[in-house]
Specification:
alpha/beta, DNA polymerase, domain 1, Rossmann fold, two-stranded antiparallel sheet, 8 strands
Length: 216
């Protein structure tokens, strides 16, 4: 029986793509660069905002200086608009409530920067008591480095064997492998199932309620 479920945020609990796209396009526009259609951002996100900016910038302008300029414009804008179009995926709120009722420990491990991760989790899931909500923090590695998962395991004192990691991307599947926990790939997120199956996840969820069946 799994005792701990760790969720990715973007593409797993929340559909954040529209707000991420609009905020990044705002920063690009302010710097005089071409913007992208929303669907392009499915390939840009997942590895933290520095990588998001790098991928969104024109290839010859992908410098550390431009990434910092993008960040300075993006963060204040996204902080104001990150809940404009974002919403939980169908069934997620009910899933979290049912897991909490079953005394399953819940946590979030995201590559979104820490303050935005905390804000969105509080905003959309105010009734859920997460043991730990971790995002990207300055100077620390991002997923697929196992740091976030290991920090959650240490905080909860729950073993890797008793943990399920749920995510929608290749980064998430690699994170689970690097952390030596079972992975559950979800099919409703930002990435195609074919991308995720290469990592041989222990479980595949086609709808949120499926995850309840994987705890045993």
């Amino acid at each position: 029986m799994k005792k701990l479920v760790i969720f990715d945020l973007d593409g797993t609990l929340l559909n954040t793509i529209a707000d991420l796209a609009q905020s990044t396009n705002y920063a690009l526009q302010q710097l005089g660069f071409a913007t992208h259609k929303e669907k392009a951002y499915y390939q840009f996100v997942g590895s933290g905002i520095a990588k998001l900016f790098e991928r969104a910038l024109p290839e010859k302008h992908r410098t550390a200086e431009n990434v910092q300029k993008m960040k300075a414009l993006f963060v204040p804008y996204y902080d104001k608009h990150n809940a404009d179009l974002t919403a939980p995926y169908p069934g997620i709120s009910n899933l979290l409530a049912r897991l909490q009722e079953q005394k399953i420990v819940l946590a979030v491990a995201s590559n979104k920067y820490q303050s935005a991760t905390e804000k969105l989790v509080r905003h959309y899931f105010p009734e859920i008591k997460f043991a730990k909500v971790l995002g990207q923090r300055e100077g620390l590695p991002v997923k697929p480095d196992p740091l976030l998962v290991k920090e959650i395991l240490q905080h909860t004192q729950i073993s890797a064997e008793d943990t399920l990691y749920v995510g929608d991307s290749d980064v998430d599947m690699q994170t689970a492998i690097n952390s030596r926990v079972d992975a559950c790939a979800v099919t409703w997120g930002f990435h195609a199932l074919e991308e995720l199956q290469k990592y041989q996840p222990a479980f595949v969820a086609n709808q949120a309620a499926d995850i309840l069946d994987f705890l045993d």
